[in-house]
TrEMBL record:
It comes from the Eukaryota. GO terms for molecular function: double-stranded RNA adenosine deaminase activity; double-stranded RNA binding; tRNA-specific adenosine deaminase activity. GO terms for cellular component: cytoplasm; nucleolus. It comes from Trametes cubensis. Residues 134-156 are annotated as: Disordered. This is A to I editase domain-containing protein. Residues 47-345 form the A to I editase domain. InterPro entries: A_deamin. Residues 144-153 have a biased composition (Polar residues). One of its GO terms (biological process) is RNA processing.
Amino acid sequence: MVDSSPDNVATLALATYSRLKFKPPDGQFTILAAFVLRTPKKLKLISLGTGSKCLPAARLPLSGDALHDSHAEVLARRGAIRWFLEEIGRCCSASADYVSPWITRDDDGIFSLHDDVVLDMYISTVPSSFQDPDMAALKDSSRPSEVTPNATSRGRDNYSLYGVMRTKPGRADSPPTLSMSCSDKIASWNVLGIQGALASHLLRPVYITRIIIGEVESSKRETVEADCIKPPYRLNEPSIVFTSVPFAHSRFCLGPNVVSGCNDSLCFISDSPRESEVLINGFRRGVPPKRQHMSKFRPVLSKLSLYALYAEIAERAGIPVAQCETYHLAKCAASGYQTAKKALKGPGGPFEGWVTSGEKWERFDLSGTLIGEDGPCR
């Protein structure tokens, strides 16, 4: 039997992080998140991310080749999606007789976790916990804008209110974004699964069994009531546990030496041809602007990279999926996922008012070429 205690899962994540030789500059903190598959006999870290930055709405790329949101939790989740797609590809490879200990192919050709496999998520700091005390007091003493039911608040506005969806970032002097807070995103994954729309063509919903959290100051747990969600989607309620294993580059470990959050983000995908890379402003660090849009320099977790991988793996797996012209239409073709998403985030849903970037930033084909005009999901 393997030691699957929260401390041991945290230690595995931190050991993987240390091996990658990434270190924020002196005086800067970061957040670390990871996804770990677990059976009674083994643990496997499949993805890891660090970071606390996201792009302003005015700087979002149209061709899908940069990350909108480089927070640790989001990068770790996108890395897990890539790992699952690549694992499906390994299972379907004609050159090797590979049997995955983690996923299995069901009679209808769709993949799912083995019965004895569960998924843990490790986060070094509880999402939205690092609110500056002075800013929190100022927000609570000032008159906040009115928040209507199922509306979204910006950053730390209405900070004392529970159950309010929020966009990033928390700082009031930062440019507005179209990225929802990580706590809201995790809550949505507990209904829709972590696999997202594209991978749902190939993989049944994958839910988090346990969330393991490091340092804690305060926590606002998101609650969702989703009686209208239909199988195979469901309301998942992971256990939330804590670990005392310290993360050396957290704000809390650095203490008074903290100046700011690190601008760089680290991504890691286990067993992948390009296991790790460092991002800044949504692109790979060190790549000059004139090369950022070339396929070999594109971040492996960008929408365009995941779209290309999805198309390749779907063809290799022989799974009939809609032949869609754009990334947006490929997502819309995942009808079961979209129905569950609409029940959660659409009119009358518990997450009504969810902010999305929309089709404008998803009208690209596999080459990154923009196709058509803005419009509703067709």
